[in-house]
């Protein structure tokens, strides 16, 4: 995203919903590591119980963004670790 959002209130609400969805996904993965991930409908139903109504396509969009952010964070961590390993030598001196 470039620049500030046009509708800051809507942006903040969307971020809160995304965080709730992220927490649902994380909790599910921690409690049931071998289970299938929650479906869009399951997430949508949990949002409805909180009085938040989203189209299924919006739920899928948030889930996709959450997964992309997680993949990017993992890639950055992996790159940093690879950099640290290549910058160190067995005798403690830089190569």
Structure description:
It is a single chain. This protein has one domain (8-87). It is an all-alpha fold. 5% of the residues are buried. 69% of the residues lie in helices and 0% in strands.
Strand pairing plus helix content: what structural class? mainly alpha
What is the percent of helical residues? 55-70%
Judging from the principal axes of the Cα atoms, what is the shape? flat
Q: How many strand segments? A: 0
Order of helices and strands: HHH
Note the total helix count. Answer: 3
Low-confidence stretches: none
pLDDT averaged residue by residue = 88
Query: How many discrete structural domains?
Result: 1
Cα(first) to Cα(last) distance is: 39 Å
User: What is the radius of gyration?
Assistant: 19 Å
Strand content of the residues, in percent?
Answer: under 5%
Largest sheet: none
């Amino acid at each position: 995203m470039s620049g500030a959002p046009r509708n800051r209130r809507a942006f903040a609400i969307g971020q809160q919903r995304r965080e709730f969805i992220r927490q649902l996904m994380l909790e599910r993965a921690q409690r049931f590591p071998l289970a299938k991930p929650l479906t869009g409908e399951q997430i949508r139903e949990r949002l409805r119980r909180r009085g938040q109504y989203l189209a299924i396509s919006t739920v899928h969009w948030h889930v996709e963004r959450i997964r992309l952010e997680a993949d990017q964070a993992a890639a950055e961590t992996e790159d940093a670790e690879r950099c640290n390993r290549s910058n160190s030598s067995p005798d403690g001196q830089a190569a």
